[in-house]
User: Fold this.
Amino acid sequence: EDKVVQSPLSLVVHEGDTVTLNCSYEVTNFRSLLWYKQEKKAPTFLFMLTSSGIEKKSGRLSSILDKKELFSILNITATQTGDSAIYLCAVDQGGSEKLVFGKGTKLTVNP
Amino acid sequence: DSGVTQTPKHLITATGQRVTLRCSPRSGDLSVYWYQQSLDQGLQFLIQYYNGEERAKGNILERFSAQQFPDLHSELNLSSLELGDSALYFCASSPHPSRGGETQYFGPGTRLLVL
Assistant:
């Protein structure tokens, strides 16, 4: 059965801390891995990763994929209260066009 | 704002009832996806339509059905509702040809509460 597992499920940090969110997967026909940020309602797209070892970066956020070990990490440096959200990892299965989501990591950044 | 609209925003109904959720994709997008997000199951893919035709099916119950109309809007019908159907229902759209998940844009969701 296809599955995406995220850890930790919940994380509470202080502003300025650096956090690492984990995502491991077991799916057939892997095409890409995606990270989304979900604040109040709709998930918003952060990154798409298709190749191992290539870091994607956007400001204080960065992500990398390891296709051999079947996992990805999302790093957030110098966290801010606005980073508080649920971070979702999803795997895109080529051919089916559906996304398999993990249950998310709820990040809370306290001032 | 992703450009995907969903109505209604909130829906409260009773067990055994039937409801219809509506989604309008971004202008020009031909594919519509429906997802269910519950506290214990996370975000789960239900069904995808492309240009009016069903294209992919996920964990969609037989009590649920969907369709995409000629103007590309989509409706998700949920019948014989149970308490466990309470969840956030998201619609997402993507252009054709779909290049993968990065081009799925999510709507704001419909929060369904079954009492």
Remarks:
- The first strand of chain B starts at residue 5 and ends at 7.
